[in-house]
Amino acid sequence: RVARSSAAVRKPLRARSTRTAAPKMVSIRQAVVAQRSYHSSGKKNAPSPKDFVPEDISERIQNASITEIYHWTGVGLVGAVPVAILLSPSFLCVPVDLALGVAIPVHSHIGLSHVIEDYVPPEQRSLAKNALLAVTIFML
Asked: Which residue has the higher pLDDT, 107 or 58?
């Protein structure tokens, strides 16, 4: 290369082999991989999946959040609706229909209450929630 005397063109600085040289630049990916592979502390005991499973199913239901109940009813509806269609003309359909008669109003009430909280103005929220409660009770 030919060195130019212009101030606009500068040569990149090279790190010298002395102790005062700037550290070598590494890519972000290399830094993340190095951080994952190097540990200065001992191995930590991760919690077992058994630690999160309650001993009693009633305890799990009592400690469930509204969002978990919403998700459980959604999963139940995915399985129960096709079963209700397949068992339609028989007496086996009665328990499935009863389960759907509870799961559909509960699922719709929770979902629509979230919609009301997100999209209805605060001054009209109580009226909308009361109307939703009345419709849910009527559906049950």
From this structure: 107
CB 95 within 8 A of CB 133: no
Look at the pTM and tell me if it is higher than 0.70: no
- Domain presence at residue 19: no
Residue 109 lies in a domain: yes
Annotation-wise, does 119 bind a ligand?
yes
Structural domain tally of the chain? Answer: 1
pLDDT (0 to 100) of residue 2: 53
